[in-house]
Structure formats: structure tokens, C-alpha cells
Amino acid sequence: MAASRSVCRTGLISLLNPSRLIIPILLQPVRTKKRFSAPKSVGARYNTNAETARKAKAAGIIVPEELMERQINVSCTAGIFDPYIPPEGDARLSTLSKDGLKQRTQQLKQTATSHLAIRRVKNYEEGFSTKTFAENAQEIFIAAHNHLTQFDRHKLHSLVTERCYPEMVRGNRYRTIHWSFVESLEPPRVVQVRCTEMVSKDNLYGQVTVRMHSKQVSDSV
User: Fold this and answer.
1) Who has greater pLDDT, 1 or 64?
2) How far apart are CA 220 and CA 172, in angstroms?
3) DSSP letter (8 states) at residue 99
4) Domains contained in the chain, CATH given
5) What is the tens place of the pLDDT at every residue in 195-207?
6) What mean pLDDT do residues 17-46 have?
7) Cystine design at 195: which of 148, 188, 206, 214 (Cβ 3.0–4.6 Å)?
8) How far apart are CA 44 and CA 25, in angstroms?
């Protein structure tokens, strides 16, 4: 009799166990659709798309990648059209020799090309003169190197082109430069002028090569 009571008591306890009353739940992971933009919510506090995207990015929501537009600078060229190569012997070879006659012929061709380029430049710059340009170029050369030693980048930007500036300041961050212009051994002169069009016929670029023979003192630490 005692054994039957213990069995009934055990069966009653098992029936009243709370774990038997819980309905088993099967959890199955479901892959949701990926969202690449923040959904628009009703009554959002941020009206503009920029504010909504900024708050969504801070909350960890993936936003579409923005295409960054880069400005193209057309104020200067990336290279030299026709590099100037000084003639051997500074064009002092005798015209009676074969090499001298060839050098003279090539020099005449270069001079004719320069005259045509000067004519095209004067169509847009009426006051252009090879004599005054050479003198102004030497003044800009001296001023640019003086500002380079003092590292006045604002004034240096106003004197040189966007291509020349990084080439002048590259590697000078932890260096001290000393430079001075002593004298000019001969007056500066224009030796070559080139003018070509890019993108369109109205967009012309001119390059003027100035020869300067001077004495300078430079040092860097």
C-alpha cells in the first residue's frame, strides 16, 4: 500500500511539473532582406536626406556609397609640349661643316615654330612681349625661391603653378633651405615658345622657355 502511494505521488508531481505545461517552441533562423538605405519613417525629425543618412550611419545602418566628385584643374598643363634642348656648343659650330649646317637648319625650324606660336599667343594677349616676359620670369623665379626658403605657401602658390608647387616643396618638410641670388651673368631671353590647343580649339595653352644665366648660392640642412 505504501508503494502504491509513492508511485501515485510521483506521477502527480510529474504531471504538475511546470516544464510539462510549456509548449515547445521551434526556433528557425530566417534570413531577412538586406537593406542598403535607411527606410523612410513616418514623422521623422530629419527632413533632408543628408541628415537621415548621417543618423543612419551613426546607428550602424548601411547606407549607399556616395560617388565623390573631384575637380579638374585646367589652369596649367601636366607636362611640357616640346622640351627645349640647347644645341651643342651653344650654337657656335661653323656653318661650313656638316654638323654646323644641320644645327643651323634645325635652329631655323625651331625659330619659325616659335614665331607662329608667338603670333597665336598675341591673338589672346595683345601685350605679350618676349623681352618683358623674360624679365618678369626672372623676377618670379627669384621671388618664388625667396618664399620657398621662408616657406610662405600662400605667396608661393600665387607665383608658381599647381604642378610646380609640389615639386618645389617635396622633401623639404624637415629641412632648412638657404638660397640667395647673387647676380645675372647675362640678360634673360626667351629661347622657345609653344602654343597648342586642348579639348577645344578655343582652349589654348602656351609654354615659354626662358634661358637665365646667373650666379646663385644655395644650401640645405
Assistant:
1) 64
2) 9
3) H
4) 130-220 (3.10.450.240)
5) 888 777 778 888 9
6) 55
7) 206
8) 37
Q: State how far the Cα of 144 lies from the Cα of 83, in Å rounded to an integer.
A: 22
Written as nine digits, the cell of 22 is 510549456
Cell numbers at 157, concatenated: 602658390
Residues 6+ apart with CB under 8 A from 58: none
Q: Whats the size of the chain, residue-wise?
A: 221
Which residue do the cell numbers 531577412 mark?
32
Cα angle 179, 183, 187 (rounded to 5 degrees) comes to 125
pTM confidence score: 0.60
Rg of the chain taking only CA atoms, in angstroms: 40
Distance from the first to the final alpha carbon of the chain:
109
39: amino acid identity, one letter: P
pLDDT of 3 > 50? The answer is: no
Locate cell 510529474: which residue? Answer: 14
C-alpha cell at 163: 604642378
The DSSP element (H or E) to which 186 belongs, if any, is strand 177-197
Distance CA 110, CA 89 (A): 17
